[in-house]
Amino acid sequence: MTHDALPTNERTEGSNTSSNPALSDMIEARLSRRSLLDNGFGAGAVAFLGGSVVATNAAPAVAQVFRDPTLGFSAIPTSQADALVVPQGYTADVLIPWGQPLFSDGPTWKRDASNTAAEQEQQIGMHHDGMHYFPLLAGPRGSTRGLLVLNHEYVDPILLYTDGATVMTQEKVNKALAAHGVTVIKIGLVDGKWQTMDSPYNRRITGNSPVAFSGPVSADHPMLRSELSLPPRGTLNNCAHGFTPWNTYLACEENWNGYFGTTNAGWRATPLEARYGVTTVGFGYNWHRVNPRFDLSQNRNEINRFGWVVEIDPFDSQSIPVKRTALGRIKHEGATYAEANGFAVIYTGDDENGDYFYKFVSAEPWRVMRAKGRSPLDEGVLYVAKFLADGTGEWLPLEFGRGPLTRANGWQDQADVLIRTRMAADALGATRLDRPEWCAVNPLTQNVYLTLTNGTGWGSPGGPNPRSPNPYGHILEVMPERGDHTATKMNWTVYLLAGDPAFDPAVRLNATNVFGSPDGIWIDPDGRFWIQTDISNSAQNRGNYLNIGNNQMLAADPTSSDLRRFMTGPRGCEITGVITTPDQQTMFVNIQHPGETSAAWGTPTPANPRVVSNWPDYDPAGRPRAATVAIRKVGGGRIGS
Ligand code: FEO
Ligand code: CA
Ligand code: CA
Ligand code: CA
């Protein structure tokens, strides 16, 4: 296979061929709402993030201790350097790069990528993504000892193997499976530096780990039964994440369709497979050529075991990850927890060009359900968002027997609705969006912020996709009725347009904060927004992205007009995953796919994997490695303050 065909995790074409309206189609009536934008994120404008926060629901559901979200650092410039840069007064230390052994006596990482699959299983996975920090101690000491839990989204075959991806073998598939999944690792702050620690909690969950199914779709459902009699195993393409107040971690399965393929020329996609972008070649991994598990002809139902949210108990290393099917089967970007009246609510975007935004509401208050031994994520209602032209919106239930989801229309039961979530949402008339990525809930207002990373053209002015095409992306603000996440009504507005004003005069950003393709978003306990970017390596540092530089992370004070660039990454990477310790004195951030094939910097090869980047080791005989970095303020203090 050629380098042009090498796997990358981003696809721009959608697979939504429904005639559902894009926000775009509804616009003229909404032109007046542009004024919110214009009053909002101006370059240096006072109302920047603030205008819409002021306009939100009056009564937050939960009282919060509001600390000061003021930004206390100086914005750093854009960067094209092969370096990680943070503001003056901060340090950023590499904590767990790809390949570091999970235990101190584990297999040493080899810089020529000659570690075996068995060794990779005992090492940190590749391509770090969503991440959470679970304190291990109560009180202030919880900010010095904890479990870091993180996703490993996908692999770069040029970097993972000594000989690249041209020849695929069973051992290479096994190594890739071992580099995917989730890491749980104990870390501690010792003499001002974070380090990993041996612990019975340390574990890797991979593409081969045993998994269980729960909720309406059981593991023995006919659509999930393996033609090769293989048990359900593994989680793949774990992008963003979530966490629950009952101390579990949610790993989300995003671009899982890319791992499957077939050489059977007679194979044809069913409507269900076509709706999820399943093709004979996938994303070019070629696992199906040597492993029948991933062959769409020999083992057709294996793919239906993917597309779920996976719940993991990091405090029980023997626990089996559970695929919570009630949350639907889509390309889950993340799973963001919110709560209203004790009910557990999970917001989750389907990251595809023209796909939808969902939320799940538990059947009963989560404490009541858990007291009865039931999972709050197994019973409840899954909704999909419909955005109306007047700035209101509705959450439409995906429930068998309601609306069009009836037997007369070909729906069998709730399991069928969930396996075919996208098609059920099509039938309900959900609103197409410009690639829904992460979302975050502001604890001060209960407003929900959804990043829409970019789109090829659903939009029109005034709608939720206000540009068409939309190369830069934007952030949507969703205001639940009365601040109640269980409500089926909401209001919405476009919160922030990303992009370069040199190419798009509608953009109100400047040198201190120009950015594009928002992906990660998180709101810290002070109410400070953190926004991370994932500009594709086909666009980065070229054309209308020339002035934006390498991928970056920004911080925003939503009560003022302040948005500042806080971090720039090395070449080829995206910045993703962000969490602080409870005291906010350490922030953990992931640097994913440094050194990936890039239109601006070139194509790495097995002979020289350092063409684009050699971060973080800068070893002249090494290779770039995804890694978590730990950011601290010199002399202490809350990150961003
Ligand atoms: Fe894995 Fe949608 O980013
Ligand atoms: Ca992402
Ligand atoms: Ca990405
Ligand atoms: Ca992305």
CATH fold name, please? Answer: Neuraminidase
Radius of gyration: 23 Å
State the share of residues found in helices, binned by percent. under 10%
Q: In angstroms, what separates the terminal alpha carbons?
A: 49 Å
* Number of E strands: 29
- For the record, the CATH class is Mainly Beta
Tell me about the largest β-sheet: 9 strands, antiparallel
* CATH architecture title: 6 Propeller
Biggest sheet: strand arrangement: 12-13-15-16-17-22-21-20-19
Ligands, deduplicated: MU-OXO-diiron, calcium ion
Helix/strand structural class: mainly beta
Q: CATH superfamily assignment?
A: TolB, C-terminal domain
Task: Explain what you see.
With 641 residues, the chain is mostly beta strands. The protein has a single domain, classed as TolB, C-terminal domain (Neuraminidase), CATH 2.120.10.30. It is 8% helix and 27% strand. The strands form 6 sheets. Strands 12-13-15-16-17-22-21-20-19 form a 9-stranded antiparallel sheet. Strands 2, 3, 4, 5 and 6 form a 5-stranded antiparallel sheet that branches. Strand 23 and strand 24 form a beta hairpin. The termini are far apart. The chain binds MU-OXO-diiron and calcium ion (CA) (3 copies). One calcium ion (CA) binds next to strand 8.
Compact summary:
With 641 residues, the chain is mainly beta. It has helices at residues 34-39, 50-54, 117-120, 157-160, 170-179, 271-275, 366-371, 414-419, 421-428; strands spanning 90-97, 128-135, 145-152, 181-190, 193-197, 203-205, 212-214, 238-243, 249-253, 309-312, 322-324, 336-340, 343-349, 353-355, 357-365, 380-387, 392-397, 433-434, 436-441, 448-452, 474-480, 489-497, 518-523, 529-533, 552-557, 562-568, 574-580, 586-592, 627-633.
